[in-house]
Amino acid sequence: MAKTSKAKGGNGANETERTGAPSAPAGQGTPAPASGPTISVLAQYIKDFSFENPNAPNSLRPREQAPSISININVNANPLNSSDFEVTLALEAKAAAGADVVFNAELLYAGIFRMQGIPQEQMHPALLIECPRLLFPFARHVIADATRNGGFPPLMIDPVDFSRLYQSRLAEMQAKQAKTAN
Hints:
The protein has helices at residues 120-149, 162-181, and strands at residues 4-7, 16-19, 38-52, 68-79, 84-97, 100-116. By secondary structure, the protein is of the alpha+beta class. The protein has two helices and six strands; from the N terminus they run E-E-E-E-E-E-H-H. Helix content is 27%, strand content 36%. Strands 2-1-3-6-5-4 form a six-stranded antiparallel β-sheet.
């Protein structure tokens, strides 16, 4: 069953409530139609995935020092029609010990979202904050399983503040536009 996220309030708050199908009032057999803004998850899937363990079996030997791990995250959204969008969450996790790559995992995890009743000025933040927030736990699980299956401890990526990520990317774009305007 698809999950629905219903935005609360009109002040642009990022607080959401996830619900299943709308519930029927007591004593009635048919559910009431959803009112207000909704985000419905129609599908989610691995779009592209790669796991590399280039120095195996040497990379699996015990080491004195833990490898350094870098994680990069990116989010993109593409319209499919007037209300449906594909949102892609790109995760890259790379572990290195000195100049040697221990492992490299690259994942494009996507979802199809139906956006209804969301004001146009809130559509961009909803697509790039709320949708990846719903996808992240599943993408995190894929990366954890891949690193474990690759012979390493599962890499449990810390939760991501997609609102802060969105704000920082917005600030970067505005700074670039200001620089090119001068």
